[in-house]
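Researcher: Structure for this, please.
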Amino acid sequence: FTKWSKRVNDPARSYCSIACLYAHRDKHPKETVCMTCRKTYKPDPANASRSDARYCSRECWHDRRRILSMLPPWDVPHTIAGYMAGFLDGDGSIGINRAKSGRIEVRLANTNHGALDWMQNAVPYRSYITEHYQARKISHKTQYELCWHGPQAHGLLTAIAPHLVIKRERAEQAIAFHTAFLTRKERHGVIVPQPQPCSSNPCALPRPVSDEAFWGYMSGFIDAEGCIRINDRLKRLEVLIGNTHRCVLMYLQKHCSIHCTYSTRHDEGRSPLTTLRFARDHAATLIGKLQSLLYIKTPQALLGQQFHDTWPHDPICQHMMDTMHTLNATGQ
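Model: Predicted structure, token format:
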């Protein structure tokens, strides 16, 4: 044949057509080194465009992906891990973002930007804060959202999963999903169900990892779902914790060993809301244990403790009550 192009002018590699050139290249692929096991192999030309073409087997591709998705473990103190777990159980969510190749996500939402900024700096994994809901009325407050994605979310969940109560099972499912050997199509088909309210049938109560972790969890949950107030009618200090998951309230009441009362409200079309109430001396005792661990409700805790110690002898108690009402109304 006549050499038809300078591209194949090499005497050792002469082909009559471009089709023969590709056919020879497909039958004699060049050897390469696997990125996981470092073995020499010949890749399959049919899969040259796939993301796993640089690995000698499907198992090596999964192993490499698993290694890249694992971040260094976070040696977190039990107090901070418990606080993060309590805040996640109260004002957080664990999900799968299907628009981003099925990666896991952890989100914390609150109107206090300072608390989210503090948690962002406390966790060594990359995250970002966005404005989730902008206030359109004077009575509304702007809501912010702190997010972790993919390996960062996996590292956070691995550290705080033993301290979770409501979302522990969901966190374990998300960790297993992140490390599973699934293709992109299979990952898009996985559905992780949201935890359902358990007011009528409480879930099994876990045991706290340590006392520091439990008080950290309770402070985080109160910052997310609790309220420290002064009852204007009864003139007493109260700490209220409300949630549709009765299991978490039973968990708090059992391990704090402080007297409290339960009350359940049934609204039409909504899940029953159970409230845990600490009053008077019991509320002051609880605040004394949590005062150094709270972040969002620290001003309410200090003011409530001062009111409990001085009522009814201090003439500025009424001013304390008004200030407490303003703090709870503005969320500061």
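Researcher: Any notable elements?
Model: Residues 136 and 142 are 8 Å apart (CA to CA). The chain is about 40% helix and 15% strand.
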